[in-house]
Amino acid sequence: MQDLVQFDEYLMAAENHAALVHRLIEMLSSLHRMLPDSSGFAAGELRTDELARLPEPVFLHIVERLIAENRLGREAGLLRLPAKRIELTPAQSQLIAQIRNVLVAEGFAPSSSGVLTEKLGRSKNEIEKTLVLMERLGRCRRLGLDLFFDAAAFDTAVERVQALLEEKNEIGVGDVTQALGS
User: Fold this and answer.
1) By three-state DSSP, how is residue 147 classified?
2) How far is Cα 87 from Cα 84, in angstroms, rounded to an integer?
3) Which terminus of the chain is more exposed, N or C, with fewer CB under 10 A?
């Protein structure tokens, strides 16, 4: 009799499970090779080929199991191989700190890459690359294409708006503006 692996109401042959695990890790390795500066990848980016045909609960169960076994890592919602981490250069760390100081000072009055370029006297390309890196590291949040907030300020704003909605059930722009102090 064939060995089986069970995921809630799903059953799978252990041999098929092992092949899918191998494919998932292979896919992640390939993405890391193609995009070496990436801190990780969204689960949807890994769902190709036979992985795309898996029911969502089975795919997620495989991912969670691999994370529990330390065969995959998850950071800021992105999946990565455990050995892959972003190692910041001193210059990157310094620019991240400078950008974060501006974002913290602005609170929920968002900055754009253009504003940050002017304030910090750096190239727009350098600022944009660093903002994307900060977002992947969970240090800032992006709203739309070019509005950036300190992660803590953004999360606090979301909590305030949620609390306001729970309190009033219906809110207007003025209520949100007042709650956010903007």
Assistant:
1) strand
2) 9
3) N
Q: What is the pLDDT of residues 102-152, one digit of tens each?
A: 999 988 777 888 999 999 999 999 999 899 888 877 888 888 888 898 988
Query: Which among 162, 161, 130, 164 has a CA at the least distance from the CA of 148?
Result: 130
Please tell me what DSSP assigns to residue 5. E
Residue 49, pLDDT above cutoff 90: no
pLDDT value, residue 98: 95
3-state class (DSSP) for residue 132 = helix
Q: Are strands 10-13 and 4-7 parallel, antiparallel or unpaired?
A: antiparallel
Helices (H), the chain: 14-34, 43-46, 49-52, 56-68, 90-106, 113-120, 124-136, 151-168, 173-180
CA nearest to 49, candidates 39, 63, 59, 61: 59
Count of beta carbons in the 10 Å neighbourhood of residue 32 = 17
| Cα–Cα distance list, 122 to 17, 86, 111, 143 (Å) | 49, 22, 15, 22
CB atoms within 10 A of CB 59: 20
73-104 pLDDT, tens digit each: 887 678 889 887 767 788 989 999 999 999 99
The DSSP secondary-structure symbol of 181 reads T
Single pTM value for the model: 0.58
**Cα(132)–Cα(76) distance, integer angstroms:** 13
